Amino acid sequence: MRATAAEISNAADSWLPEVEGETLSALLSRCGRDRGDRLAVTHLDFTENPDGLAVSLTWSDLDRRAGSVAVALRRVALDGDRAAILVPQRADYLVAFHGACRAGLIAVPLFAPDLPGHADRLAGVLADCAPSVVLTVADKLDVVGDFLVERGIEGVEVLAVDEVPDAEHEPVAQDPDEVAYLQYTSGSTKAPSGVMITHRNVVANAAQAMSAYEADPGRTPTVSWLPLFHDMGLMLALAAPLVAGTRTVLIDPVAFLEKPVRWLRALSANPGAITAAPNFAYAFCAARVAEEDKVRLRLDHVRALIDGSEPVQPAAIDRFHTAFAECGLPRKAHRSSYGLAEATVLVSASPAGAAPRRVELDREALAAGRAEPAEGPDTSALVSAGHPVDQLVRIVDQHTEQDLPPDQVGEIWVRGENVAHGYWGKPQESACTFVPDGTGHWLRTGDLGVIHGGELYVTGRIKDLIIVDGRNHYPQDVEETVEQAHPAVRKHSAAAFAVPTDDGEAAVVAVERASHLAEDEVDLDELGQAVRGAVAGRHGLAVHELVVLGPGEVPRTTSGKISRSAARQHYLTGTLRGSA
């Protein structure tokens, strides 16, 4: 399809012809056969050794163990049954996922029930997908069994993948358009939705990703601490290495949060690696990695630091690169990107070879739907998400569904081989999100963006917009102002959202107090005046209520991002406490 003024596309050199029409299972067999004794995955285990114990599987190991799990699954489940993966972040997770795919089941990447704060989400997903079997590991059998009993989930087989004996696997015939797995979206304000990702979707997106980030077949490692049950974590550690025939290095998210230098050491030890993280992680590293820990870091050979936050925050990028410039980190390694689960994960990426483009846009004009370059304090800084990777992107008026010209803000629509077809068991929701056009379908992303200077800029999510007195306010702009308003506000902790009142929509802001301050050391009146004054002065927006919480109490997603929707829901139900 030819790109119009309302579309951008990029037909860069693609890996897709090499793997088009393949399934994940067929690719694993190929790697097991052709790359047998080469490493497929190395898990750096910090639970007992602070320096990390490397536990590895070769491609033949992974191929053999996945086949054995598939044999065990075929005894207890049927084609198309769901296999829920409740495995910690280790090599066994990949074994479980590939075993489910090989058995002709639909994998459901989840997490062990002892992940703090997310038991309700896990129960909701299990109720939605109704698995016939749960895959876990021996040391989690009791935890998983107790959870299933507590939640009244019956008739489910539980299998420890690390106890499955070796067995000869007979390949199951698979079509690339069969569903490979369900990628569940956030369920903070509604029942979780499982995106149906086919083998064709995930293989295509993995090829698109490896093309975008200029990976060398068989040579470019990936390093990841992102949870494997998240779309980017699964792509980075499982799908992309499979397509590229390369290895991955896994770190547990908790190990990263305990000592973020562990991630950077893994990058230093694996030259040419591709990795990814949200904004908060880059700022977190800049703040938490000590000077003495930087001495042995060599980051000059990092191939790509993917930042897929929505939108990317320039300040976080700057802090990270300033902190690690002495380690040789090149700015061109930072690759701002855009994606979402309904597109498997990746949609666009900033061009290789240079730092992502930035623009300063007039804040008032942007809120009114226009991208107008400007200078001065009343601007919003945006980082380019680059060009689509073998996909088409349109900017559409969300009310009329008509294409908008460049420099007009609208909803981002996406089309490509990587775009899923719908949500598990939700035909009405699927029909609203995946729009047919006669020859295929477009994905309505729910994200706002603009094409400026031939590149895509993500401005926010439609559902997160704060609309007060007929004016639009982007929450990330308000949050940045709040975090700079007073030193008692903890960085990267603010959540701004709109709530209904008798007088219409109003703005509420939840923040955490700085971690070095006790509750009685914060002058709430002073803090409230500073925040309200800053937001009113810079945005012309009155803060209806400021909620001040302790460190770590603002709701976050399972990947550590602030969840505005969950904060709003907790506020409306009265479970956000404290105010100024």
From TrEMBL:
Taxonomy, superkingdom: Bacteria
GO CC field: plasma membrane
UniProt keyword annotations, A-Z: Fatty acid metabolism, Ligase, Lipid metabolism
The AMP-binding enzyme C-terminal domain, residue ranges: 464-577
Pfam family, one: AMP-binding
Listed CDD domains: FAAL
Domain AMP-dependent synthetase/ligase: 36-424
GO molecular function: adenylyltransferase activity; ligase activity
Protein's GO biological process: Actinobacterium-type cell wall biogenesis; fatty acid biosynthetic process
Family: Belongs to the ATP-dependent AMP-binding enzyme family.
Protein name per the record: Acyl-CoA synthetase (AMP-forming)/AMP-acid ligase II
